[in-house]
Every structure is written in structure tokens, then in C-alpha cells.
Design brief:
Length: 196
């Protein structure tokens, strides 16, 4: 029967794994929120580029520098989205082939779909979700709090189980000790009776 320390160590291991999964889920949600926010901004940038182009064509105005600035914003947003998608595939233990775009295992040297040699993966820190997405941040914080509470509850239950197990072992040891004393007394009485 496992002792209290083994049970406590196992409970701690379960709590650590639960916390790791919670952190992975939190990162996944943050990345997804960042992608959604960037896609919304990218759509607005595309609309602005179209508006500027229409204005330039319709009124004969030169909006080239404004359009170029929005194109740079669009390129940055697209790069942010691509980086976040790479992080998501990393969390899923996958990667995206740069050549064909298929999701493949992160450890393969060559894409099984197109045969392209794969570069070594480099960690990319996701950008924080934009300020206007605070409701999503609250959801993530709430998830983190709930996961932490669940981990604490698991640890508490594991400690209760371990304490109960220790009590059962202690009771069993006392019963064995009492029986051993009875046996010793019987043997002593038997030896004393033979000596008389």
C-alpha cells in the first residue's frame, strides 16, 4: 500500500499536469483571440485601401503614400497572424509546411505531402491581445482561476485520501501489534504452565 508521501507526490504530479494543460489552453485561447483581432483589423485596412484607391481614381487625387502606409500595416498584420498560427500548430505539436501549407508533425525533416525540407522550429512569442479585446482577457483570466481552483481541490482531495490511507495503515499496525501481544502472552502462559 502506498505511503502518504507517495500519494502526495502523485497528487502533486496530477496538479502539475493539470496546471500545464491549463497554461497550454490559456495560450491557445490568447493566440486565437489575437488572430481574430488581427483579422478584423486586416479587414478594416483592406477596406481603407479600397476607399483610398476609389477616391484616387474617382477624384484624381494622389493617395499613393497613404495606400503604401496601409499596405505596410496589412503586411504586418498578416505576419502577426502567420506567427500566431505557427504558435498554435506548435502547441498542437505540429507545424505548417512553408511550401504547401499542410499541417505536419513538428519533428519531421521533410514534408510528407510535398517533400520540402523543413527548417528547425524557432520559438515565437505571441503578441498580446489588443486592448479592445478585454472581454476575452477576462474570460481567459476566469479560466485560469477556475483551473487553479480545480488544481487546489485535487490536491486537497489527494491529501484527504492520503490521510485516510495513513489512518487505515496505522489502525492495521495497531491491530497487528495487539494480536502479536496476545500471541506473546499466550506463549508466555503456555511456557509458564509447562514449568509448573
Amino acid at each position: 500500500m502506498p505511503n502518504f508521501e507517495d500519494l502526495k507526490r502523485n497528487a502533486t504530479g496530477v496538479a502539475d499536469r493539470a496546471m500545464k494543460k491549463t497554461n497550454e489552453l490559456t495560450n491557445f485561447v490568447k493566440l486565437k483571440m489575437g488572430i481574430k483581432a488581427s483579422e478584423a483589423k486586416l479587414s478594416s485596412v483592406y477596406e481603407e485601401i479600397g476607399r483610398l484607391f476609389y477616391t484616387a481614381e474617382r477624384n484624381g487625387e494622389d493617395c499613393t503614400s497613404d495606400i503604401a502606409a496601409y499596405i505596410m500595416k496589412a503586411d504586418k498584420l498578416k505576419a502577426d497572424i502567420a506567427a500566431a498560427k505557427k504558435q498554435i500548430t506548435k502547441l498542437k505539436k505540429e507545424r505548417v509546411c512553408e511550401n504547401c501549407g499542410n499541417e505536419i508533425d513538428e519533428n519531421v525533416a521533410f514534408c510528407p505531402f510535398c517533400g520540402t525540407k523543413q527548417e528547425k522550429l524557432v520559438e515565437v512569442e505571441p503578441e498580446a491581445a489588443p486592448e479592445e479585446e478585454t472581454n476575452f482577457e477576462e474570460i481567459v483570466e476566469d479560466l485560469e482561476d477556475k483551473a487553479e481552483d480545480a488544481c487546489e481541490e485535487i490536491c486537497d482531495k489527494a491529501e484527504d485520501i492520503a490521510e485516510d490511507a495513513a489512518d487505515v495503515v496505522e489502525d492495521a499496525c495497531e491491530t497487528v501489534a495487539d494480536k502479536a501481544e496476545d500471541v506473546v502472552e499466550e506463549i508466555k502462559d503456555a511456557v509458564d504452565g509447562d514449568n509448573e
